[in-house]
Amino acid sequence: MILPIVAYGDPVLKRKAKDIEKEYPKLPELLENMFETMYNAYGVGLAAPQIGLPIRIFLVDTKPFSEDEDLSTEEQKALSNFKKVFINPVMLEESGEEWSFTEGCLSIPDVREDVIRHSTIKIKYQDEDFKEHVEEYDGLIARVIQHEYDHIEGVLFTDKLSSLKRRLIKGKLTNISKGKAKAEYRMRFPQVKKR
Length: 195
Prior knowledge:
Layout: E1 5-6, H1 27-40, E2 45-47, E3 57-61, H2 73-80, E4 83-105, E5 108-126, E6 132-138, H3 139-152, H4 163-177, E7 187-188
Parallel strand pairs: 1-7
Antiparallel strand pairs: 2-3, 3-4, 4-5, 5-6
């Protein structure tokens, strides 16, 4: 089932998410719905807060990035085969060179900006069977994971921009929070209080 994606301005996007237990109700169905929602919106990652749930789950499928002809065959292969669910993740380390890349977010339609992130990460998480993993990633995979991890920490990519950049996009962000934004997928906008 395709779920509506929560828009910028909803408090759930700014809240630190909580861990879940193995007995979390209907988890397989939730994960299936999240993948379906992400693919419907042509995303490469989706975090539970983006569908209104303040829990520590996100999923990633970097296959769309594998079609970039500027990447090496090895990078394309890695990206085309990377599809994972991260439950109760903890970022252990962000290291390596910092690099800039244009990011967007399904919760912030039509806003794309350059964000600086570390090139390498080490993360501990549980998979959908609650088996624990500690893994290292770099490049675009690391970036997508960092972006989605930020969501469960209550951080948006726009929070990482310079104050000047934030001022320049303030009008767009305000419009999104008021429901004045168009997306080619279902969205749920914050309830605007009427005076």
